[in-house]
Amino acid sequence: MDFKLNDFHRNTPDQELLDDLKSVATKLGRNNITSREYDEIGKYTSSTISTRFGKWNIALQLAGLELTLIQNISDKELLENIETIWIKLGKQPTSRDMKQPLSKYSIDTYVRRFNSWRKALQAFIEYINTDTPIQELEENISEPINEIVFKHKTKRNPSERLKVQVLIRDGNKCRLCGITLIGDNIHFDHILPWSKGGETTLENLQILCAPHNMAKGDL
């Protein structure tokens, strides 16, 4: 058996180390990488990179990769991120959607916190279907219509949380024609019009396609 020292990488340029980080992440098909994963297939060692840049996460940032461990993120922040993505996509996000620039946090972050993406979605459904927080209610908003004053307990425009609840319930389909809706074609409609005292609640909201919402407005 031959005994010899490993190559000494003190003089390796910073950019070469960062490029190898990105190369390994590309091989893994992700935008992040742990130090253990890098040690398995990287050209250098994670300790070499950590020593050069001070910390592993600093090297990841310089390489344009996501952090592999994000601390002090609450469950609420992670679930609100799913809520934002669901609204943008107009449908349930998949694990493949959980990457920048669409998602603030990677799929690995959710798996570490909730043990699986499915369990993260289950936690989100439980979170999103809780009662609307009291701070979202607006007290004594009144609007005169034909000399009748309706005192509303809710704001006219639905919150992002309420929009997701309606989308889930209606299955992203227009309640009148049944077509699947995404993006700007999703219209949130008051079944009992706001002008006639209808509240902005899950029971009084529905999603319509743009043509049917405009047609209802004309009526």
Short synopsis of the structure:
With 219 residues, this protein is an alpha+beta fold. The protein is built from 9 helices and 4 strands; from the N terminus they run H-H-H-H-H-H-H-E-E-H-E-E-H. It folds into 3 domains: 14-62; 75-128, no CATH class; 134-218, Orthogonal Bundle (DNA Binding (I), subunit A), CATH 1.10.30.
Q: Would you give the CATH topology of the largest domain?
A: DNA Binding (I), subunit A
Level-1 CATH class name of the largest domain: Mainly Alpha
Percent in helix? 40-55%
Low-confidence stretches: 1-6, 132-148
Determine the structural class based on helices, strands and strand pairing: alpha+beta
Question: Overview of this structure, please?
Answer:
It contains 9 helices and 4 strands. It has 3 domains: 14-62; 75-128, no CATH class; 134-218, DNA Binding (I), subunit A (Orthogonal Bundle). The longest helix is centred in the N-terminal third of the chain and has 15 residues, at 14-28. By secondary structure, it is of the alpha+beta class.
What attributes does this structure have?
single chain; 219 residues; alpha+beta; DNA Binding (I), subunit A; 3 domains; two-stranded antiparallel ribbon; 9 helices; 4 strands; disordered N terminus
